[in-house]
TrEMBL record:
The keyword Acetylation does not apply. InterPro entries: EF-hand-dom_pair, EF_Hand_1_Ca_BS, EF_hand_dom. SUPFAM superfamilies: EF-hand. Keywords: Calcium. The keyword Calcium applies. One of its GO terms (molecular function) is calcium ion binding. Residues 16-51 form the EF-hand domain. It comes from Salix udensis. This is EF-hand domain-containing protein.
Length: 93
């Protein structure tokens, strides 16, 4: 599932807002439990044409999951956004 929001331009580069990122994260929550699993994130990365989706998803969830439950919940979305910016090249403003 690709990010299909209108991007904003920051310093000549396309970016999305944090609110758009949060809205996109809700769309990849397939079971609607309010948490993003490694598998849900891998499907999203794969849908965006990303290579090594499983590995990136595992690293992303591991990096964002501050309470150690194996999922990214609402309170950890900002952590996942930081990971996406640093390792996936997504610019979030």
């Amino acid at each position: 599932m690709a990010i299909k929001y209108r991007s904003v331009t920051v310093d000549g580069e396309h970016a999305i807002t944090m609110e758009q990122f949060k809205a996109w994260m809700k769309t990849i929550d397939d079971d609607k439990d309010g948490k993003i699993s490694k598998d849900e994130l891998a499907d999203a990365v794969r849908g965006n044409g990303g290579w090594f989706a499983g590995r990136k998803a595992k690293r992303g969830v591991g990096s964002a999951d501050s309470n150690g439950n194996g999922f990214v919940d609402e309170s950890e979305i900002r952590n996942l956004a930081e990971f996406a910016q640093k390792y996936l090249g997504i610019k979030i403003v």
